[in-house]
Design a protein that fits this description.
Layout: H1 3-32, H2 43-55, H3 73-102, H4 109-133
Helix pairs in contact: 1-4, 2-3, 2-4, 3-4
């Protein structure tokens, strides 16, 4: 077995473990928080999960990387929107971390840090799965 076969076998499992670790960070932060965490703090993780689902709807084999072909423009637009959603969710989690660190009445800084870790791990898991199932 070469690396591509092993990656196709173990890649989805690794992706699921990384996805679970990202959500575990967030659940730990919410459970250990001394104040009630508002719903707006949940949104970056939800949108990161949605973005991971969006770019896993497209297989790599379906994309033509030629700059002169006008073929799969819908797929490329879909991937662009998915990556915009993913980076906006990451930026939103960073913004919530800054807000949590400046306001003393809100959730702790650990909640903001866990939100960033959640977004990063969810997006990494989506990319791992995208490369593994497209082989």
């Amino acid at each position: 077995m070469d690396f591509a076969d092993m990656w196709a076998i173990f890649g989805p499992g690794i992706s699921g473990a990384v996805f679970g670790a990202g959500w575990w960070f967030w659940i730990d932060a919410v459970v250990c928080s001394s104040v009630k965490v508002s719903f707006i703090h949940y949104l970056p993780g939800i949108f990161a999960s949605l973005a991971a689902l969006m770019f896993n709807c497209v297989k790599r084999e379906d994309i033509d990387y030629s700059p002169y072909e006008e073929g799969e423009w819908r797929l490329k637009l879909w991937l662009f929107i998915a990556y915009v959603v993913s980076f906006v969710s990451l930026a939103g989690s960073v913004g919530l971390l800054v807000q949590d660190s400046l306001v003393s009445t809100g959730p702790s800084v650990w909640t903001g840090t866990a939100g960033i870790l959640q977004c990063v791990f969810v997006l990494i898991s989506g990319l791992i799965y995208w490369t593994a199932h497209s082989e």
